[in-house]
Amino acid sequence: MKIWSHSASYQAELAAPMTWMTSIVRNRCLDWLRRPAFEDATDDSTVWESLESGAPGPHELLERGTQADAVLRCLAALDDRQRRAVSFAFLDGLTHTELADRLGEPLGTVKTWVRRGLLRLKDCLARAGVSGA
Fold first, then answer.
1. Fewer CB within 10 A of the end CB, N or C, for the chain?
2. 77-87 residue pLDDT tens
């Protein structure tokens, strides 16, 4: 929670993200070890509520952001026709027939663009280390 609540204070020119986060965790652990033994560690209700809510945590949000960046980089690497076809199909939810009409191209051509675009995306994402690619 400390990392999440202080994320705005991170300064990239001073330390790498992992170094900055490790310092916060280390300092938090030292604070916890120094506090009196009679203090109950479970009285921080906001921490427990956030854990029980099922909402994505900072690590999951960071991972999603990293994956989104990889997807955008891989989409940008596609041929323009493939990028447009894949984007219309998956972001706008168009069928192949609707894609062919919108792009003014034959149905078989559009299907080929989508298929080849998806194969290139899969390859690019696998090289980027995105799981599930």
1. N
2. 999 999 999 88
